Records
---
Amino acid sequence: MLVAARGGPASETSSRPPAAHPESCIQVDGMKTPCVYVLLLACLMGLAAVEPVQAQQSGKRGSLPRTDPSYKTLIHRARTEGSVPVIVELNLGGSAARTMAEVADGASAPAPAGVSAPAPADSPPAIARVQARVLAGLPRSAAAPMRPATAYRHLPFLALDADLETLEWLMGSPEVLRIQEDRPVPPLISSTVELVGAEEAWARGYSGQGQTIAIIDSGVDPTHHTLAGKIVAEACFSTSSYVSTTLCPDGTDEQIGPGAGVHCDPAIPGCGHGTQVASVAAGHDETYAGVARDASILSIQVFSRFDSESYCGAGKAPCVLSWTSDQLAALDHVYGLASDPDGPLSIAAVNLSLGGWKYTDQDLCDAHNAPMKAYVDSLRSVNVAVVAAAGNNGYADGLVSPACISSIVSVGASTTYDEVSSFSNSAPFLDLLAPGQAVEAAKAGGGYGAASGTSLAAPHVAGAWAVLRSRAPSATVDEIEAALRITGRPIVDARNGLEKPRLQVDQALVAGALPVELTAFEGRVEGQTVRLIWSTASETNNAGFEVEQALVTAAGPGAWRQIGYVAGAGTTDTPQTYTYPVAAVEPGVYRYRLKQVDYDGTFAYSPEVEVQIQPAGAHYLSPAHPNPFHARAAFTLTLTRPQQVTVAVYDALGRRVTVLQDGYLEAGVPHSFTLDGTGWGSGLYLYEAVGETFRESRTVLHAR
C-alpha cells in the first residue's frame, strides 16, 4: 500500500513501526522491488512523532502552552531546519469537527494573496474570512514561503510552511485551534475476483454500472487496456517545497482536468501503485476484470518527488511520498464533486491505499487525525464511503492512520486460502478483510503482475461498494458496511484470536442486509380512480407495502392513513412491478406513499406522489365525515375556477347556525371546513355552498 503523510503522536498507544515484515514489500512477478518502510522514514528523518497542538480557547494571544512537548518539537524543527510544514485548524467559534454539510453555504471572501487553492464562490463565507485574516496577519517573514499556502474550500484548515516567527504567531493566535505537522511518507507496497463472489454479482446484473470510485494514489495509467476509457475525471495535488517537487503534469501544485491524474514516472518506485489499485477496483478488458468491472474511475494523483536520501532512505532516492495536506486537498475536491446535486458523477467510494503511524487506540487516532476525520465524516454525510488499507507492518494490535479513523472502512489482507496475511495489520477496530496476497493487477505501461499488500485488499472493498451501490443506489454507507460485515466469510487471525469478515460481495447482494430498491413510483388518474404503479430492482426480506393516502387542502397536507396493502416478493434479485387501484376517489388533491415493511417489522417510506381528481362540473362539495358525528365533522369544497363563495350551516328549521366562509376562494385545491357541534342540539343539519356559478347543499346528522 502507499503510505500517507500523516501526523502521529508520541505516546504509549501511538508508536513508530518496528522493522517491516519481509512480506510488506511490493512483489511483482515474484520479484521484490525496492521497498521503503515507515520505520525507515522515521529513523532517517530523525523526527519525533508529533501530536497535534491544540489551543485553549481563551481568546488571548499566547494561549498554546509553551511547555507542550509537541509545541517544543515543532519549534525545534523550525529553529534547526528553517521552517516546518504544518496543517492549521482554524477557529470558527464552534465545533471544529463539524462536517462540511453542517457549514452554511454562501459567497466566499476574496482569496488572499499567495493561496494556491482559493475558496470558490459557493464556499462557506466564514471559512474564507478567517482564512484570509490569518494569512493576512502572518509575519512578514512568511510573505515569500517555500510553497504557497493552501486554503481548503469546504473545511476550516490551512496548510503552509512555517518558520519560527510564523509558528510563534500561529501558536498565539486566538483564531487557531490546532496545529499538526504535515508529513510526507513513502509507498508500501490467482484471481481474487472469483474468490469474493464478484462474478456471481455480475451474473445477477450488478457490476458497478453508473458508479464512480475515487482512487487517491500515485495516478493511473489511462493507456492500459484494462483502464482505457474508464477514467471520467482527473485531478492532481502535489507539492513543490524545499524538500519535494510537484509531480502534476503541468508543473503546478494543483491541476484539475483531463490528464491531471496520470501516473507519475514509472521509473520511480511507487509510481505504478495507483494503476495496480485502480485495476483491482474497476479494471475491465477481454482478459482481466476488477471487482466493479463496469464502474468508472476518478483518478487523483497526490504524490510528490523527493530526491533526498534523508527522506527516501539510503540508496533509494528519488522516491515518491505524499503530504497529508495534498490528501486533504484531494478529499476536499471529491467532496465538492459528490455534494453537487447536478454533478455528473455518482461517487460510491474513495480508496486510500496509503498510511502513516501506528495506533492501538481508535479514540486517540481520531483526535490526532482530526482534519482527515472531518473530511471522512463529511463524505459519509453525502453517502460516500472512504476505504483505507490497514497497513503492512504485521501489527497484531494496531492499524496505521488513516485506516485507524473510526469513520473510515479499514481493510486488512487475507490469502486465497482464507488466512490472514502475516504482513497485514490487525486490531479490534479493523472492519473487513479482503484478498491482498498474490493479487493479479495491472502494471503501469502495460501487462499484469502479482502484487501483495493491504493496498490491494482495500480496492476489493471499494469495488464491492460500487457493485452494491449499482444494486441499491440510495443505500447509505452504514447500510452497505453492515451488509459486508454481516455476510463476509469469518476468518480468525491466529496472532490475536480476532475474527473478522472476509469480503463476499455476492452474499451481500442477497442475504438480507440491503434495503428494497424502489426504482419507480407513480400515480395515474383514470376518471375517478387513481392507479398506483411501482417497481423494484431487487428486494430483501420484503413482507409487503402498506399504501397510504393524505388529502391536500388549501391549508396543507392532512394526516396519512392506510388504505391498502400489497404483499412483497420476499428476497429476490428479479425486478418486480406492483399496481394498486384506488377506486371512487372524490375530487381533490391527494398524496400517496408506500410503507415498505420487512419480515422483522422494520420499515421505510417511499417518496410521495401527488395526483388531482378534477370535479365533473364547476365545483365539488364533499360529504361530511364522519356522518353522523358527535363533536366535529369535516368536508371540502373544490372549485374549477376562483370566485366569491359563501358557506353556511342551517338547522332543520332553516335557521342559520354559523357562517364558515364568506369571501374569495382559489380554484384547483380542496378547501377544508370543520363542523364544530359544540352547543348544537341533536338532529339534522344542512351545510350549503353558494358561489357565483353554483349552489349546493348536503346534510349531516349531529348526535349528542
---
Amino acid sequence: MAVKRPERKMHLTDYLWVLKRRVLLILFFWGLVFASVVVATFMQQPLYRAYARIEIERSVDTPDVIEAGARRMATEEFYNSQVENLRSRRIARKLYNDMGMYNWEYFRKLGPDRDPIAVVRNWIRVSRVPKTHHVEIWVLWPDPKMAARMVNAVTDAYTDILKEWRSSAFDASVRALLNRAQDIKREQDKASRAVQDFSAEREIYALPEIRSVVLTNERWLQEAAAQANVEMIAAQSLYDAVNKAVEEGTYENTRDTDLLQRLRERLYAYQEIVELEKEDKTRRYRDQDRLSRNMEVRVEQVNQQIAVENDRMRRAAQSDAAQKLATAQANYEFLSDMLLTNRQRLTQISRDMLQLEGLRKQQENIEEMRAVLDKAAETVKTYRSYEDIKARVISQADIPKGKFSPNPALNLPLGLVVGLMVGIIAAFFFEYLNTTIRMPRDIEDGLGLPVLGFVPAMSPKFKDFATRSLISHLDSRSGPAEAFRGIRTEVMLRSDLRQVKTGMVTSTSPQEGKTTVAVNWAITLAQAGNKVLLIDGDLRKPMIHRAFNMKPDRGLSTLLSEKDSATVYIKKTDIENLHVLPGGPIPSNPAELLGSRKMRTLVAEAAERYDSVIIDASPVLGVADANILSTMVDCVVLVVQASKNRRGLVMRAKNQLASVNARLAGAVLNNVRGTKGDYYYYRQRYQPVAEMMEEAGV
C-alpha cells in the first residue's frame, strides 16, 4: 500500500534553519560557480566592440490622395524591417566580398556544410535606439581595427543597396499593379462573355416580363383546375347516383317517362281496337275463349316491348353519366399537367434570374477591382516622386580603445550573486529530496503522532553502549538526561496516560536507540520513586543485560520455556526501585514465546507487583514481535532516530501497530543534532540552576 507523502508547511524560521543546516553545500556551490566565472573571465579571448549609428528617415510630401496611405506606412514595422535589412544575407554577402573574407584562413578551414554568408550574418549586430529613428550597428572582434572596418563596411553596403532599392522597388510595384490590372481586365471580358452566352443559350432577354406572363398563366390555370375539379366531383356524384338507381330499379327519367306515356297511349288505343275486334269477332265467332287468348298474347307482346324500351333507356343513361365523368377527369388532368409545366417553367426562370444576377454581380466586382488597381497604379507612380527613404550616417565606427569582453568588474560580482543563488537553490532542492524525519514537526504533521520528547545527540565521551544507556543515572544533569525526564513528565502529565502501568518501547528499524530510551525511561521512573520492572522483550537481539553488566545465560526466554517462577529471573540493579528481567539466550522461536499465554500472564502479574513495567521490544518492520507485545501493554512509544528513516517507513510501522489496535502514546525523536543557533543547542546545553549555584559556591 503506497503511503501518501504529507505536505510540509514551511515557515520563515524553517527556511533559515535549512540554510544554516546546508551551509556547507551552499558554500560549495557558491565557490564552484565563482571559480568557474573567474576562470572563464581571465581565460576568455578579449573582444572589442566597434559601433556606428545611422539615422533612417522617411520624408513624405504626398498629395491628399495618398496622404492616409503614407501615414500608415510610417509605422514601427517599417523601422523593424530596416533593422532586418541591415542583417540580411545581401548585406552579409556584400561585406564578405568587399573585405575579401574568402581569403581568410578561418573560411578556408570552414567545412562544406557551413554557410560562410550565414556566419558573417551572425557577426553583425543591429539594434534600435528607443524613441528615435537611429539604428546602431556593432561588431565584436578580437582585432579592434578589423572590428571598425567591418562596421563601416556594413553602413556603406546598406546605403548603396538602399539606393538600388529606391529605384527598383517602385518600378516593380508599378509593374505588378499593371500586370494585375491586365489580368483583371481579362477576367472582366470573360465575365461579360459569360453573361452574353448564358442569355443566348437560355433565350432570355426580358426575364422579368416573361416571369410576369408565367405568373398570370399560373393564376388562370389554378382557377381552371379548381373549376374542373368541381365538375369532376359533380360528374362522379351523378355517375354513382345513376348506377345505384339502376341497381335498385328506382331509376326514372323525364325523357323516359314521356316515352313510356306515349307507349301506353298507343297500348290503350291498341286495346280499344282489340276490344272492338273482340266484339265483332264474338258476333261472328262464337268461340269466346280463343279470342281472349289471342288478345292476351297481344297485350303481353306490348308489355315486353315497353320493358325492352325501358332497359335500353337505362343503359343509355348510364353511358351518358360515364361519358360525362370521363370528360371531367380528362379535363382536370390536362389542366393539372399544364399547371405543373407552368410551375417548372417559373422555377427555371427564377434560377436563371439568380444565375444571371450572380454573373452580373461578378462582372461589377471585377470592374470595381480593376478601377481600384488602376487608381493604385497611378497613386504609386505619383508617390514615387514624393517619397524618399534617407539613411544618414550619424557616427562612423572608430577603433575601440578598451576591450568590451570579458568584463571582470561585471563578471566577478555577478558570479558571486549567481553562485550564492545556485547554492541556495541547491540547498532547498536537496532539502526537498530529503524525506527523512528530522524535526518534531515532521512527526506531528507527517505521521499524526504526538511528540513525547526529543533526545539530543550525546557527546563523544559517551562512547560505549552501557554508558549511553545509563546516562540518566551517570550524568543526571546532562542534556539527554533532562530530555528523558521530560519524556517521563510528558507521559505522567497526559490525562490519557495517567492510569498507564505497562508500556512498550519499539522502533521502525534497528539501531535507532530504542533500548537506550527504554532503559533511561525506566531509570527516570525509578528516580521518581516508582517501583519499576524493565523487561528485555527483544529476544532476537537482547541488549539490556549489557547495559547493567549482567550475564545473558538466563532471562525471559528461559522463563517462558520453563516452569520456574518469574522472581527467579528478575534481578535487582544498583539503581534504587529498578528491577530488570534480561532477555536470556536467543531462542529459535521468539514470536511463539512472546505470544504465549505465559507471557501475557507475566505482564499482568508484573503490573500488579510493580508501579510501572517497561518492555523493550524488537523493531516493528520485519518481525511480528512488537505487534504481539503491543496487545499486552497499556501504551506503546515509537522511537525515531532523526535523519535516518524516511517518512514512508515510519508510516508503515505506525500502520502495522494500528492494525492490531495498539495504543500509540506518541513518538520520541532520538539523536537530534543541532548547532549553537538551534533551540536543540540550548536544550542540550541546558544547565540547571542548582548546578550553577553549586559551581558559584552558594
